[in-house]
Model the fold of this input.
Amino acid sequence: MAGKIIKAPRGTQDILGTDSYKWQFVERLALENAGLFGFSEMRTPTFEQMDLFKRSVGDTTDVVQKEMYEVRAEKGKDLYGLKPEGTAGAVRSAIENNLLKGALPLKVCYVTPCFRHERPQAGRLREFHQFGVEMFGAQSPSADVEVICVARELFQMIGLKQVMLNINSIGCPTCRAEYHKALTEYFRQYQDKLCTTCLERLDKNPMRILDCKSTVCSEIAKGAPVVLDYLCDDCKEHFEGVKKRLDALGIEYKIDPTIVRGLDYYTKTVFEFISGDLGAQATVCGGGRYDGLVKQMGGDPTPALGFAVGLERLLLIMEAQGIEIPKPETCELFIASMGEAANIKACELTNALRSEGFYAECDLMNRSVKAQMKYANKIGAKYTMVLGDSELESGIAKLKEMETGTEREVDFRADLAQALYDITIERATEDLAEEFGGEALASAMGMKR
Ligand code: HAM
Done:
């Protein structure tokens, strides 16, 4: 009896060969762009001690309270969590590997899968991917602006349109104390309406009520006092410094006093990039300062900041805006064969072509030549060549251009890679000549027409 087909878990997705080139494209661009700002890639584990997330992201956040995937290898042994975001691991690693004792600012970046048990919808998954950067050691507002620039530059390189930068300051523990008092007073009036989680948060961490996803709580939250009205002088000055630099660099932004972010570690500047092409999940990038986190996690006091871009959301916007991603190269040459000896020759030639950097294939299925040609067509091979007894004897085979059907003879005992290279160049030059100047360009390039 055939087994039941097992499906992927809800809220996850397979990235197939037809799409993986898009991921490679954005990931490469993101890492290369961050590299220009001095960020180097860091890779941290997919799971960490549960306590790491409780102490950093915060045990009264939705992410930790409601959305964590817990992992226990053996009953009664340590509890781990699948990472819901990249910052906690990066901070742990920077402290554990003594990176903060080296040159500062330390700039790291990453591409990582993240896991949150949320209700799946467009742009919201249970396993998703983040590209993020973290900078340690810099407290100047210039650092905030540099980090914002990394994200902005990436969006510009990709060609995204209408991605709006929204910023806010959520102050430091000093100004937060006053603000918490005001929030508690405000929410206390609605305590019979708040969800049970928020009721608990009322005393422990009232700011978390502001990003509760329940409709009742979020409606009540709309009338709550805003943190910008409670900033201490130091936080005000820092925020002014950030705005002044954004203005000087001509970076457009909006101040959105309702941004509080859903993670506990933030201090001072917080920001989000919002796109109108994402529906309800409009935030493609979120970040900010977390000046207290390194100390809280056992390191020396070190200001820090960063952001993360949701790669699924980024790709959704690109698709909505019709941004083309260069397709990967298709097969340059498929060498079909008839009979054992020809098949061995085909294997030998394809291998030699690959070591010269060509994408080449040959028959691995003992198919008829007709079926081999059908396969070559399916994979979009640009050229094909058929080897049989007579070709093996003469050393000459017909190279067929699949698009036009044009055939030419090549001596495959000589340098096949060079022949293929010459043909490719010749073909590309012809295409250019056709596009840009016909005869004139062709003759200038010394081509026979
Ligand atoms: P976050 O705002 O929780 O921040 O997530 C960053 C980005 O990840 C979001 O803007 C969104 O694009 C994407 N994202 C979050 N949840 C999901 C989901 N369920 N499905 C798809 N995409 C999602 C952080 O994670 C911080 N660690 C960012 C940071 C780095 N702050 C400082 N440094």
